[in-house]
Structure prediction request, 160 residues.
Amino acid sequence: MENAREKRIHSVLFVCAMNAVRSPMAEAIARHYFGKSIYVQSAGVRKSEPDGFMVSTLSEIGIDAAKHKPRTLEELEEWEGLNFDLIITLSPEAHHAALELTRTIAADVEYWPTPDPTITQGSRDQMLDAYRNIRDGLIYRIRVRLKQGSQKSPDDGEGA
Prediction:
């Protein structure tokens, strides 16, 4: 019997609370490392504004996320449907919403608890460091979880 981790992933959806930091960061990272070999999207449970620190910390490693427009799960469903093999949730609120979705769609759901860097207090450098920690953790998890004979090898020496 095929294990969930052995199944070929063709499409992945990253979900967090507001689609402003964690899930768009994960979407941009997955697209960077896996190109067109895996269809990737992100969404949030609630609507938000774009986050400049998210864009800045990805830009530091050569990933452009400046055009990201936060969207909700409802908007994504209206625009293109929710036909994903894997939904990776990055916050408790997102995990609960994704589990609700599995009542009507057949997708595996994984919860990757990821702290919200927007609650970090301190200097600009301390805040950027919190975002970098999230970015680097997501790079590692995404490269390990999604590497499966993709066109662009996660071991190409790029990134973190």
